């Protein structure tokens, strides 16, 4: 459970050794922004992404950010 049931469709990016991101209020229309931001996430060793680096719709829709577990 990502805990975003009342906040529209939720999307999470997670990988071993990386920060986990959960975004809220996503839809079919935001799919290009999701894909663009996921590419950025994939190319970062830690998964860290600054707000200004994320695609427009994912800049303001962060539900939570979970530190990597080592």
Please characterize this protein's 3D structure.
- By secondary structure, the protein is α+β, with helices and mostly antiparallel strands.
- It has 2 helices and 3 strands.
- The protein has helices at 31-42, 56-59; strands at residues 9-13, 20-26, 62-66.
- The protein has a 3-stranded antiparallel beta sheet.
- A hairpin with a 6-residue loop joins strand 1 (9-13) and strand 2 (20-26).
- The chain is globular, with a radius of gyration of 11 Å.
- The mean pLDDT is 92.
Topology summary:
Elements: E1 9-13, E2 20-26, H1 31-42, H2 56-59, E3 62-66
Antiparallel strand pairs: 1-2, 2-3
Distance between the termini: 22 Å
What's the pLDDT, averaged over the residues? 92
Strand content: 15-25%
SSE order, as H and E? EEHHE
Shape: globular
Order of strands side by side in the largest beta sheet?
Answer: 1-2-3
Major beta sheet summary: 3 strands, antiparallel
Assembly level: single chain
Question: Helical amount among residues, as a percent range?
Answer: 10-25%
Structural class: alpha+beta
Q: Could you tell me the number of beta strands?
A: 3
Uncertain spans: none
Care to give the gist of this entry?
With 70 residues, the protein is α+β, with helices and mostly antiparallel strands. It has helices at 31-42, 56-59, and strands spanning 9-13, 20-26, 62-66.
Name its key features:
70 residues
